[in-house]
Amino acid sequence: MRKTTHAPGTIHRLTIDSKALAGNLLGDPTERVVDVYVPHGHSGEGLPLLVDLVGYTAGGPAHTAWKAFTENVPERLDRLIGEGKMKPAVVAFPDCFSRLGGNQYVNSPVLGNYEDFLIEEMLAAVEQKFVCGGTGKRGVFGKSSGGFGALVHAMRHPDVWAAAASHSGDAGFEHLYLPEFPNTLRALAKHDNVIEKWLNAFEGKIKLDGKDTMVLMILCQAASFDPDPGAYLGLRLPVTPDTCEIIPERWENWLKWDPAIMVKTQGASIGKLKAFYLECGTEDQYNILYGTRRIHKELEAQGIAHRYEEFPDNHSGVDYRMDLSLPYLAEALSA
Q1: How far is it, in rounded angstroms, from Cα 83 to Cα 91?
Q2: Which CATH code fits 10-172+259-334?
Q3: What is the DSSP letter of 120?
Q4: CB contact at 8 A, 270 and 158
Q5: Which stretches of the chain drop beneath a pLDDT of 70?
Q6: Residue 308, C-beta contacts closer than 8 angstroms, at least 6 positions apart
Q7: H or E segment and range at residue 163
Q8: What are the beta bridge partners of residue 310?
Q9: DSSP E strands: which ranges in 2-158?
Q10: I need a surface site. Which of 90, 171, 222, 305 has the fewest CB within 10 A?
């Protein structure tokens, strides 16, 4: 068990009954938990607010739970703030887990309008309760799918967020998702190429493996980027089921959400932020490095200030990188 050497902050739990998530096709609950960290010695009043968007297969409370051999995020915050390496900040951990295993934090008739939930409901609840954040003092950060969420929110809502950090956020969809479509089709073929049959079988299993999770992840992305309300749970793939050929109009819907493409027309929004942090490991097993580099190069070409990092590691177990991003965001939001 890890010894606590710094005065611990307090974790509060809020529950929000969301109108934005009502009517989602998955039948997921609209009542959502948000854990909120307040640093030791503070009530939250006047502090910046950071929002943690977790990666796929997790929910916000996973980051506040006990973690073996290392720190959870509140313990990391206790250390960084206690050592004077990070300015005090309130940090919110919203639970956006779904029946499809996660979230991309955008509006979708399938998963629910999570973009609206975060901006219109979650922020209002946390800021009212703790008298923190507000215009110019809100930041969003995340890793993997959460990093994608941070990227997209930074480009779409610079009026809401004043700082953002993406750790290995989904980008460069042709390298990230295209390699997974053949595996997905092979899995579906065992169930007559019917998504409903595959999902029913998946949900009936008593033990899951990584292959199952990757198929579910592709379905979750389909629900986020190219929902079809006329299909079962709104789910369809952008490839033909027999030959795995790209269906151009469907794949184009996915690419509209690729941050490596979005940055070309929406990168100027990032320039409105007080701080923008972008990074990826050089050994990222999902090939996200290449899309991340494209974002960095495009921001440089547009003359948009940002902090870019590459580090010698892969996509997994890289929470230690928050030691760089969180102090950077808190410093900018405290100015």
Answers
A1: 18
A2: 3.40.50.1820
A3: I
A4: yes
A5: 1-4
A6: 278, 279, 296, 299
A7: strand 163-167
A8: 280
A9: 10-17, 31-38, 49-53, 90-94, 107-108, 112-113, 138-143
A10: 305
Query: Two tokens at 129?
Result: 């309760």
Pairing of strands 10-17, 107-108: unpaired
Asked if 11 and 35 count as a contact pair (C-beta separation under 8 A), the reply is yes
- Residues of each domain in the chain carrying CATH 3.40.50.1820: 10-172+259-334
DSSP characters over 191-236? TTT-HHHHHHHHHH-SS--HHHHHHHHHHHHHHHHS--TTSGGG--
Q: Tell me the C-alpha distance between 235 and 42, whole Å.
A: 45
How do residues 301-315 score in pLDDT, each as one tens digit?
999 999 999 999 999
Residue with token string 């972008």 = 278
In sequence order, what DSSP letters do the residues of 252-307 get, joined into one string? HHHHTT-HHHHHHHHHHHHTTSSEEEEEEETT-TT-HHHHHHHHHHHHHHTT---E
Single pTM value for the model: 0.97
CA 105 to chain centre: 6
Per-residue pLDDT reduced to its tens digit, 253-309? 999 999 999 999 999 999 999 999 999 999 999 999 999 999 999 999 999 999 999
68's CB contacts (< 8 A; 6+ apart) are none
